[in-house]
Amino acid sequence: MLAKDVMSEGVISIAADATVLEAAILLVNTRVSAMPVLDAQGVMVGIVTEGDLIPYAALEGIAASGAPDTVRTRRVADVMTKEVITVDENTPLKDLVVLMAGKRVKRIPVRSGKSIVGIVSRIDLLRVIASRASSIETAASASSSDEEELRRAVLAAVKGKSWSVAQRFDVVVVGGAIHLWGIVPNNETLNSYRSAAQGVPRANSVVVHMQVMPPATRR
Known about the structure:
Number of domains: 2
CATH topology of the largest domain: CBS-domain
Radius of gyration: 20 Å
């Protein structure tokens, strides 16, 4: 299993010249804890996290007293973490785990060439652990290339469908078993994902870990 097999795709990023306020709003609205920072050419120059922005939380009201409004004027480039560890998309999972543990980082951006194509966080690794534990009795073991092909087939099967609205959706394939992750608004949507995955050729089994959580109850 490689980094590209476990990473979260569709990475949210922000421009280096965006303000701290804009970064905070984007993190809240997208419900992520960190995002790559890109320069004008689209090249990653850093990463901004909740931890980078938290010190500015108490400054929002300063403008009312006549002091400079730091939250609205300070740029992301001024507060971001500049030394960022990244890995190639073909990095083996075991090497990725060793790197994250050794460097004590919570997440690592994944690149293909110069482009950032995903990010691996601790939760992504926990998905792998849970998926493997659920598939421990699987008789046949598929090769890494077969698993990646099956994963992409499932992603293609759900892409663009009217019911394909899951948040934090991900697919992990272990030993030919397809594991679906994410948050959906109702059981009908969950069943649509299950049916689509079951309809993919060579799908030995489909294990649904998805949670049903109506929009009003999400935090």
